[in-house]
Fold this protein.
Amino acid sequence: MRIRPSPGPELVDAGLVLACLVLSLLAVKTPWSPLPWPVVAAAGVLGSAAMWRRRRWPVAAAVAGAVAFALGGNPGPLLIGLYSGARYASRRHAWLCGIAGWAGFVGWSWFDSGKLTVDNIVFPPLGIALVALAGVNLATRDALLVSLREQGRRAEAEQSLRDEQARAAERTRIAREMHDVLAHKMSLIALYAGALELQTTADPKLRDGTVLIRTTAREALVELREVLGVLRADVAPAAASASASADDTGAGQFPDLGALVGASRRAGHPVELRDEVGDLPAATARVVYRVVQEGLTNAHKHAPEAPTTVSVGRTEDGGVAVAVHNRAGAAPMDLPGSGSGLVGLAERIRLVGGTLRSGPVPGDGWQLSAVVPWLDPRPEVS
């Protein structure tokens, strides 16, 4: 079924103006007021025309509608003007619309009977209050919808910012780990070149080559440290501290999954490790370690004391498949979290060409799984 779009504000206002003009014609022919028909007609036309700008000038529309009712007995402009004043006017001016409507009722009673009674003074405010209540109710609803939309946009922007910070922190953490590995290798190259330099004094060309290797290795090491310094300066303190704390958990050059699982067991969480691969290349091992670390952290938070299985195996294309599966546990622990752990982990795995999935297992808890390429190091030259 196709939903038709609601008519625009201009079309609605045009229809209201037309309806008020029809009522003005009836007010002249019936008549609804003892005043001369030119006065009744003029009041009806002017009051109807004022409804065209009722959203922009709601107080003026309410006053014009009250005048049209007082002089011509036409209730259309009066009711529409009161409603518009209650919905579109500011709260400090809305009471003027109510006074104008009450004055319109009193004026019409005076012109119609030549006197005022208690009923003419007391009962009209009840009708005015009902119309004003409808306008205020819709105005409140509109303000609430605007507030909810703004909150939604702000929450989306904040979540996007947190995700970007998590990605930036993960890239920086990867850069620091790469620096640690490369710095170690470059230091060894410089050390071996220095030792070789002392043994090649008899061959000037070979000695010059070893000096060049040692100097180049040291220059590369200095440049690596400068790049790391820039990356550290660009990261927010919170992201840098999170990166440092993650590095302190044991993700060194050769992370130990057994130690990570053992720490969870000592904390009272039943964790089973099924490692069918064994030794991994250092780069692959670091990514696998991060996946298991994040999975166990989430299990501690959301399923304490639930049986958890950590599985590491090979895929058909030679990669490494790692999964952390926890069954449904007790009530989640009241621990704070930014929700950016999976975002950073996904960024890390994306950068190495892997895939990450997380979600509930129907009737059997939650699972975090990833496929990481086998990142072979370059063969050493003997």
Q: What stands out?
A: Residues 234-254, 333-338, 378-382 have pLDDT under 50 and may be disordered.
